[in-house]
Amino acid sequence: MNEKEKVLFINFFENKKAIMRRVAIIGVGFSKFGERWDKGLRELALEAGIAALEDAGLKGEQIDAGYVGTMASGSFSGQEHIGSLLADYLGINPIPITRVEAACASGGVALRQGYLAVASGLHDIVIVGGVEKMTDLSTEQVTEILGAAGDQEWELFMGATFPALYAMMARAYMHKFNAKEEHLAAVAVKNHKHAKNVPYAQFRNEITIEDVLNSKVVSSPLKVLDCSPITDGAAAVVLCPLDMAYSYTKKPVEIIASAHATDKIALHSRESLYEIKATKIAAEKAYKMANVSPKDIDVAEVHDCFTIAEILAIEDLGFFKKGEGYKAAYEGLTTLDGEMPINTSGGLKAAGHPVGATGIKQAGEITLQLQNRAENRQVKNAEIGLCHNVGGSGGTAVVHILKIV
Amino acid sequence: MNEKEKVLFINFFENKKAIMRRVAIIGVGFSKFGERWDKGLRELALEAGIAALEDAGLKGEQIDAGYVGTMASGSFSGQEHIGSLLADYLGINPIPITRVEAACASGGVALRQGYLAVASGLHDIVIVGGVEKMTDLSTEQVTEILGAAGDQEWELFMGATFPALYAMMARAYMHKFNAKEEHLAAVAVKNHKHAKNVPYAQFRNEITIEDVLNSKVVSSPLKVLDCSPITDGAAAVVLCPLDMAYSYTKKPVEIIASAHATDKIALHSRESLYEIKATKIAAEKAYKMANVSPKDIDVAEVHDCFTIAEILAIEDLGFFKKGEGYKAAYEGLTTLDGEMPINTSGGLKAAGHPVGATGIKQAGEITLQLQNRAENRQVKNAEIGLCHNVGGSGGTAVVHILKIV
Fold this sequence. Notes:
Number of strands of chain A: 11
Oligomer: homodimer
Low-confidence stretches of chain A: none
Structural class of chain A: alpha/beta
């Protein structure tokens, strides 16, 4: 028994602690994101799920369990009971698939549950997916359905949509730190530039700061090009215990931290409008669990549902000081070749934001980066990456840290 | 190191198996079930959650995590992001609460995730709840929303509601085994009789076989009194590692098995119409995990969304032979003082069926029975109990086995 084993032994037999396994990502898959009028909810999930299984070199019958994140399939498509639906369509009955929901953080929370299922020893091969089919309804209907991520009785019912909630955060931030609309716009410009090289992205066109500033106001100061789009799409990753991972891939990526925090669901109950406290708490837990600091992160996917959200995220995650994040995108520090590359996928803004899929897409993108498979959007020598997924206006935050083994 | 510890030791260090902890239920709470026009979704969840915490003698700040099952809060109440909402209203931010959904088995699946969170060692004190607020809409709207538990594209869209799907199963069963409408009716009569003694139940009135036979046809052969009602309600249980349980209760109830299986979501794709295969598979797994047989079960809560569903359940769970379950209720074998007491809570039929809450209510009821706290509905000497929760027309089944320690 070596020293590490001795500690585990004492922990279990004397302190009655359980012992968890190390967990790796061994396959990733994406559907094309966009207005996917050719496919429904189940077909999109299958497109990503099958791609992830093929990437891991696995067959359906080798899966032990699944998790899927989707926010509002009941409202978007009249379909709940997604676990049964997808086990059926993937052809893997009677394997259990569990659907989880945490608004726009549904994917991140699903990944955390999948991680737990493997780490605990309950299951070996677990597929985790996220999916949302959003474009079958009008923009007004979609906006109302997304409002269900906030406090229905005290926000949505009173007329506060999500662009309005984030606009209030943007105004508070701009006022406090003297940021301008062009600083926000720089986030969108950078993310569109990144998405040019992303095969699955919804928007692969470059835009300029002027384009953003001149685009139609949605909720001042946020304009259309400050907002992530309405997107159909799905993403999936396959997990297994690290010990088994080399049977499936030469480059397993380990999940070295998984953290989930909540905050007041309504914006008006928060302590501050210019930070997302749940992000700070989840990040702190994750850094501690992984025994790393923000400086150790080589690449990150963060939740930029609106441009202001990316600025808050890169501050709350500790990459930049509070009140200085807005300069980072503007000065090019967060581009692919900058000192802290953020959202090489194009983020929610340009890759698209199929709500339940976003948290899984982030993990997929970071996995590709750490495996040196990100082609012409590759961050050099990326060894540790972070995924940051937010639900609502900050009622939920999930942070995962991944590392190439 | 004793023999059992040696096996664990070898498993972990040589076979790289994780080690899970034993998990106990230490508190239960119910909201009153019924047409609760006095309370919304969040208040119902709180009513049950606070009752469960008080039952365990715990304060909110002692909770490490939560899980909540709800099927369709988005469609019923315009509210998703239930984890954040309830962490907020329970006053326990930043603790993570995770919402899971599996149609009418949402509660059972939530319990399984909560069990896993404790067993794995990730969390110690975990609250698991279920809630549904259904009576704010018309019966037609509710019927359509519940249809989302089936295959939206191939069943609901074509006009097949849930009463229609179960009516087809009832017809197939009656034809195959020569059962009559009065045999089905006997299930409802028995469950109403049980609910008379259940404080939280929606319907505490006795009914007769004639009442059922003369009630309005919903989808022949199912009549109104063959169907579970539309109900507002919530239930909660508190879990912790068995080692810690005696700090909170003199009578911890251990979860000795937790199993979840899926099947084709659409009825027309199933192998048989007179059995629910997912129930059989989940039960088989659960009996194996707990190392017990159906004969060892002293009391069970089964998923009687329609009278025919209870008959299928008691057969598929192995309490009665296939084709003979219909005689059991008719002959009184499944009453409180019968040889196999089923649904002492009154079941979904008479206690009510707030969809997401049902699986948790079942665990709460069985816990009370095993702790000898079920008052005038107490099953004598009950030591081992079973909970059986179904999603849709059988696309999901979850089975838990509980035992007094």
